Amino acid sequence: MADGDTPPVGRAWGYVGVGCLTFAAGFFGGGMIGVFIGWIVGMIQGCKPPEGTFPICNIHPYWLTGMVLGAILLPTMTIWRLRSSDRQSK
Q1: In a 3-state reduction of DSSP, which class is residue 90?
Q2: Are 6 and 38 in contact (CB under 8 A)?
Q3: Domain encompassing residue 75
Q4: What's the predicted TM-score (pTM) here?
Q5: Which of 11-15, 16-20, 58-62, 79-83 shows the lowest per-residue confidence on average (mean pLDDT)?
Q6: Is 77 inside any structural domain?
Q7: Contacts with 81 (C-beta within 8 Å, 6 or more apart), sequence order
């Protein structure tokens, strides 16, 4: 590993903070996007959800998939962009 690849200790904690904040945002945002995609799929399929429930058929697969993907992708992309901008500023 090259000397320029490891962040200073103070900067590493900044990455942890950014990762934690974007994890929460990605978790909830990805879940909402997953529910929206599930709603669109249900509309296309003509699905009728039971009365008194959430107005989407098969919400859980879309909801959970969106939450997991959002919780992984948003922090990964944010830290990747942050580290690449740090390398370019040197």
Answers
A1: coil
A2: no
A3: 23-82
A4: 0.77
A5: 11-15
A6: yes
A7: none
Query: Tokens for 10?
Result: 């103070």
Q: Which of 35, 36, 30, 40 is nearest to 59 (CA)?
A: 35
- pLDDT, tens only, 11-44: 778 888 899 999 999 999 999 999 999 999 999 9
- Tokens describing residue 89: 């500023």
CA quadruple 70, 71, 73, 79: dihedral positive or negative? positive
Q: Give a yes or no: residue 46 inside a domain.
A: yes
DSSP, collapsed to helix, strand or coil, labels residue 68 as helix
Amino acid identity, residue 13?
W
CB contact at 8 A, 74 and 29: yes
Overall domain count for the chain: 1
Is 13 domain-assigned? no
Distance separating alpha carbons of residues 80 and 34, to the nearest angstrom = 24
Residue 24's CB: how many other CB atoms inside 10 A?
Answer: 13
Looking at the domain assignment, is residue 5 inside a domain? no
